[in-house]
Design a protein that fits this description.
The structure holds 2 protein chains of 2 kinds. Chain A is built from 17 helices and 24 strands. Chain A is an alpha/beta fold. In chain A, the strands form 6 sheets. Chain A has a 6-stranded mixed β-sheet with strand order 6-9-10-3-11-12, sandwiched between helices. Chain A has a 6-stranded mixed β-sheet with strand order 18-21-22-15-23-24, with helices on both faces. The longest helix of chain A is centred in the middle third of the chain and has 16 residues. Chain B has one domain: ABC transporter involved in vitamin B12 uptake, BtuC, CATH 1.10.3470. In chain B, helix 2 packs antiparallel against helix 10, helix 2 packs across helix 11 and helix 11 crosses helix 12. Chain B is globular and about 60 Å long. The chains are: A alpha/beta, B mainly alpha. At the A-B interface, helix 2 and strand 8 of A face helix 8 and helix 9 of B.
């Protein structure tokens, strides 16, 4: 007897202008399993799941839920059919309570009024049943990121979801929260729910999933293999289509003088101290990594290090000389900046690649003469950079908005690296880029370091910090709370520093 | 100062009276902003309300029908605002300002077309029913209520019902969710456009009623640019009142009070030019210092697919 599949998608096709995002895909999820849907950014996994959730309409294909053919036109349809989705960017209203966020759309009523008493009781019962440890009456903004994610899961459970789609659920979590999420996922599985885990993280897939399907370029390349039979490099090969170097790195060989030194850095916003007497330094030929949960002062630290924000107090020295001035002065003093958000500070997306690749350096004699652009020189320069940094575009005159995230990031990298900075502030250098672009950016960063440059790497991606850094540190609540040579701490230990549950110098209890 | 103390009861009575249309219109604005649509067009909706009310009263002779037509006039411009800013996703500031300009021009032109006079409409029947009877015998409250029209009760009803709808009903929760996070609302299957339309239409209706108050309760005529910035004051009251009917009431009373003080203090020996500035000084200070920590719904100006 074959068990009835919770989800069966057959021959799904979705075309977008110029690209077939989902190409004749079959996808099957059994009842009560955790099924990992693996693929790079743009492989079509989000599109496929948006079809299942009713956010996107397919051009063709059939969907069966529990063996029955169904028509899903909008999210309301899929919700009614027992499909729930936990979005990567939470679909929550921070100022409202957990209960309000959970019941909305299915509110219990008494007469014309919403029955908040009953609602609170129902939601709290659900919270207790799955051991989520939050209060139904708390406002969502008062919860941690991991707790907010549980509210998202509650939303689906409250609607009696049988199939749960988790879209990149670990992207925003600390290692501890990831572990807790996995516990929750196993519990849901034990309760008979089917879970689809959308991810590009291989280790997670192997750790928590029962089966794996891999999408590449809109096509299903591997369908429903058992996770326990796979290893990471096999999965990477399926996902990327060629061998990728997942773990290799190299440490600094020659460390020189101190290149940048920061001490006594204090910064308050609206009377709230954000950075508290922070000190750090980075030497030539070294990558100094700063790990931490977002919102612990990283953004402000980056702004201070690049001249974008004037702190309340700071002593900033580059090669022993005081460094002050506006952002442009920092740039001309050889402090390069890869901004944490390429769309707000990294690029002017509606402008061309040519313009973006000289942005901030456009006054240099190479690009401008007597206030006028040297169009030809810029064009040749941009074409060179596009080639050197492997930006996938037919023409450097194209707009940056036409590029994928990974290629946009390469434009940022090309601009900064080509001006040969002495010190590089690299913030989230590979956020939202695919594995290939990531590999490329890593090798460029390591090359720059080997040329004797100093790099400060600020990233929420713990794997990234651990892989690249010669010295690792953790920022928590506006201070560097711990620092160590590379390869000393394991992931869990850094995680403890990141959440402030462990201070430097304490013995590890585990 | 003695003038004020001696006349405290008539001053309070007049303050409440003058605040009535501001409260109703500002609560309309609350419905709009709570649904995620800026209410900069309140001025135009009040203007259409004032004009529509006179048209209605002129052609039917009935004050009640006048208020009804005024309300519909406000809703018409609410509908325009919704079409522009919800369906066609036009920038809400531009839509609001555009409608404000349109309302002034449209009412002026219509007066010329209907009555052959672009400055003033003919006099019409207006609301004459004042509160009387046993209520006026109650100490302190009685004399204050004695000067009010029946619209005082309408206003109280609007405040209570609006608060209940916004914060105690399923519709209110959904409306607020749309205003806070349209994407989230869409992702759980709420009908985002329909909810936004409803918020803006309620806004138009209430602002229209507030406008009708100007032409049929306070006066019995429509004059060019009758609202004269009251719509904008209602916008300020709505923000200061945190888009919440129960907060809007005291905020509107503050403005009404400043307005009345201005009238009374003119006899107190202070140069009248300074005194006349009072309501505007209050507005200025309130907008400069009062609204800094007020958080608008996070989804204002956003769409379910943005």
């Amino acid at each position: 007897m074959t068990p009835i599949n919770a989800v069966e998608m057959r021959g799904m096709v979705k075309d977008y202008p110029l690209v077939r995002a989902v190409d004749n895909v079959d996808f099957t999820v059994e009842q009560g399993e955790i099924h990992s849907l693996l693929g790079e950014n743009g492989a079509g996994k989000s599109t496929l799941m948006n079809i299942l959730y009713g956010m996107t309409r397919p051009d063709s294909g059939e969907i069966y839920l529990a063996g029955q053919p169904v028509q899903i036109r909008r999210p309301a349809d899929s919700i009614a059919l027992g499909v729930g989705m936990v979005h990567q960017h939470f679909m929550l209203t921070p100022v409202m309570t957990v209960t309000e966020n959970v019941i909305i759309g299915n509110e219990p009523t008494r007469g014309i009024f919403t029955d908040y008493k009953k609602a609170n009781a129902e939601v709290q019962e659900l919270i207790d049943k799955y051991g989520f440890h939050i209060s139904a009456k708390a406002t969502v903004e008062s919860l941690s990121v991991g707790q907010q994610q549980r509210v998202e899961i509650l939303k689906a459970l409250y609607r009696k979801a049988n199939v749960l789609i988790l879209d990149e659920p670990t992207a925003v979590l600390t290692p501890q929260e990831v572990k807790e999420l996995f516990v929750v996922m196993r519990e849901l599985k034990a309760a008979g729910k089917s879970i689809i885990l959308i991810t590009h993280k291989l280790r997670e897939t192997i750790e928590v999933a029962d089966r794996v399907s891999v999408l590449r370029g809109g096509k299903m390349v591997t369908s429903g293999v058992f996770a326990k039979d796979c290893d990471a490099s096999q999965l990477a090969l399926m996902m990327v289509g060629r061998r990728v170097d997942l773990y290799s790195t190299r440490r600094s060989q020659v460390v020189g003088e101190t290149a940048l030194e920061v001490s006594n850095l204090n910064l308050s916003r609206r009377g709230v101290p954000i950075l508290k007497n922070l000190s750090l330094h980075v030497k030539k030929g070294e990558i100094f990594g700063i790990a931490g949960i977002e919102g612990n002062g990283q953004t402000e630290l980056i702004e201070v290090l690049t001249g974008l924000t004037k702190p309340d107090s700071v002593t900033l020295k580059k090669d022993g000389e005081p460094l002050t001035g506006k952002p442009a002065d920092f740039l001309s003093n050889g402090v390069g900046h890869i901004p944490e958000d390429r769309l707000t500070r990294g690029l002017v997306v509606p402008m061309s690649i040519e313009d973006n690749v000289i942005l901030g350096y456009h006054k240099r004699p190479a690009f401008s003469r007597r206030g006028l652009r040297r169009t030809k020189a810029i064009r040749t320069y941009a074409a060179d950079k596009v080639k050197e940094f492997d930006v996938r575009t037919p023409n450097a005159k194209n707009l940056c908005s036409s590029l994928s995230g990974g290629n946009q990031q390469k434009v940022v990298i090309a601009r900064v690296f080509s001006q040969n900075p002495d010190v590089l502030i690299a913030a989230q250098p590979t956020r939202g880029v695919d594995v290939s672009a990531q590999e490329f950016i890593y090798s460029k960063l390591l090359d720059l370091r080997d040329m004797g440059k100093a790099i400060i790497l600020i990233s929420a991606d713990l794997d990234e910090v651990r892989r690249l850094s010669d010295r690792v540190s953790v920022i928590y609540d506006g201070q560097i709370v711990a620092e160590s040579k590379a390869d000393v701490w394991d992931e869990m230990e850094i995680g403890l520093y990141m959440t402030g549950s462990k201070q430097a110098g304490e013995e590890t209890s585990e | 100062m003695e003038v004020v103390i001696q006349n405290i009861i008539p001053i309070l009575a007049t303050a409440i009276y003058m605040s009535t249309p501001l409260i109703i219109a500002a609560i309309g604005g609350a419905f709009s902003v709570r649904s995620g649509v800026m209410a900069l067009g309140l001025e135009s909706m009040m203007m259409m309300g004032a004009f529509g009310a006179v048209v209605g009263a002129y052609f039917t002779g009935s004050v009640v029908l006048g208020f009804l037509v005024g309300t519909l006039g406000g809703m018409l411009f609410g509908f325009f605002h919704a079409v522009l800013s919800v369906t066609y996703k036009v920038n809400q500031v531009i839509s609001g300002i555009g409608l404000n300009l349109l309302a002034l021009a449209a009412t002026t032109l219509s007066m010329q077309l209907v009555w052959g006079n672009r400055g003033m409409s003919p006099l019409v029947n207006s609301l004459t029913t004042n509160i009387g009877g046993f209520i006026t015998q109650i100490p302190v409250i009685g004399p204050i209520l004695a000067g009010q029209s029946i619209n005082f009760f309408v206003m109280v009803l609007v405040v209570i019902v609006s608060w209940t709808v916004l914060f105690r009903t399923r519709y209110g929760l959904r409306l607020r969710m749309v205003g806070e996070n349209p994407k989230a609302a869409n992702s759980i299957g709420l009908r985002v456009h329909a909810l936004k339309y409803s918020g803006v239409l309620i806004c138009g209706a209430l602002a229209g009623y507030g406008g009708a108050w100007l032409s049929l309760d306070q006066l019995n005529v429509f004059v060019r640019d009758m609202t004269a910035g009251r719509g904008f004051i209602a916008v300020a009251i709505n923000i200061l009142g945190r888009y919440n009917p129960s907060w809007i009431v005291p905020c509107a009373l503050l403005f009404g009070f400043a307005d009345v003080m201005q009238i009374y203090l003119q006899n107190a020996g202070i140069p009248s030019q300074l005194i006349q500035m009072l309501p505007f000084v209050v507005t200025l200070f309130v907008l400069a210092f009062g609204v800094r920590h007020i958080r608008a719904p996070a989804g204002v100006g956003l769409h379910e697919d943005s």
